[in-house]
Structures are given as C-alpha cells and as structure tokens.
C-alpha cells in the first residue's frame, strides 16, 4: 500500500537569510509552488550585501508533509547558498512572542 502524505493545514513562516544573489526569490518560490503551498505575504530586503526574506504561507492545499517541505526548502537553500527555515505559525508565535 503506497504511503500518502498527510495534507498540511494552517499557515507557516518561511525565513531566508544569506548573501544577496540573483535567483533567490525565484528558487524558493518555485519550491513552494511545486509543493502546492500558497504565499500569503512576503517581505524582503537587502541590507548591504545580505538578503533577508520572510514569507507567510498557507499550507492547506499542499499534498506534501511538513518535513518533506522543510527538506525541499533546505536543499534549495543550500543550492542557493542561503539559510532557509520554516516553522508553523503557532510554533513561530510561541517562540517569538509575536
């Protein structure tokens, strides 16, 4: 019997930090889109040579597991030489007291 990924629900926060270079937004956004995750809000800036981006994403239409999505984002981040992290919204709020 094939294993099917549990459908994700809720929202999550994706953070990206690293040296600025061409293709970061496109690369990370492609991974998110391929997983069926919708970007709800995005904020990015470049401070000197450092790129930072925070996204709020909706996981409810995704057909991949949270751990699989985290791994896909980490792999793409490594390929782009940036650090990518994803946390569920409720965990992020608890950790950061937003």
TrEMBL record:
Residues in coiled coil: none
Residue stretches making up the ACT domain: 13-89
The family this protein is said to belong to: Belongs to the UPF0237 family.
Annotated HAMAP family: UPF0237 (MF_01054)
PANTHER family noted in UniProt: UPF0237 PROTEIN MJ1558
Name of the protein in its database record: UPF0237 protein CH338_23565
The organism's taxonomic lineage, starting at the top: Bacteria, Pseudomonadati, Pseudomonadota, Alphaproteobacteria, Hyphomicrobiales
């Amino acid at each position: 019997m094939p294993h099917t990924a549990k459908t994700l629900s809720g929202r999550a926060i994706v953070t990206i930090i690293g040296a600025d270079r061409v293709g970061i937004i496109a690369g990370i956004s492609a991974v998110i889109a391929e997983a069926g995750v919708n970007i709800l809000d995005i904020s990015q800036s470049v401070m000197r040579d450092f790129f930072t981006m925070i996204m709020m994403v909706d996981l409810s239409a995704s057909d991949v597991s949270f751990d699989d999505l985290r791994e896909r984002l980490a792999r793409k981040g490594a390929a782009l030489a940036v650090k990518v992290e994803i946390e569920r919204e409720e965990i992020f709020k608890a950790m950061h007291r937003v």
